[in-house]
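User: I'll paste a sequence; please echo it back and then give the predicted structure.

Assistant: Echoing your sequence first, then the prediction.
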Amino acid sequence: MPQRGGGPRPRTSCPIRRGRPSVQRRPGIEPEQAFHLIAGRLFEVEFHHVDLGLGHDFADMPAAVLELGLQRTHDRLPVGEEQAFALVLTDMDRQLRFGPDTATARTTVYGTLPAALRWLTGRGPGTALSTSDGALPVLPPWR
């Protein structure tokens, strides 16, 4: 929008991020920032496109949605100490550890971000991934 004196007014940030409002989604679930709630819905829509089985796959998702999906999955997937593993994304310079902070990774999983998300969310068997010991860790059910 133009200001008096000319020129557009600069937008410094998303208004919903400025105040960091939080939202209680359901009783018993910890409140989350409203921005994360909106981003999460975008992620869910993309996932449901995959679930419909109409040819849309993780490789078709925008990079920003894939990165968001990886972060949300990493934060929410309850991997136990016995299943702890490292994930090396071969299409980007990124490595994550899944499991409790005190757990030692039992294996390392290698693959692209779309292939890893497909496996991590239970939407594929992980055939496009490889591991340091030949066997993919058994994951808890996606929730």
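Residues 34-51 form the longest helix (18 residues). Helices lie at 15-18, 34-51, 63-76, 113-120.
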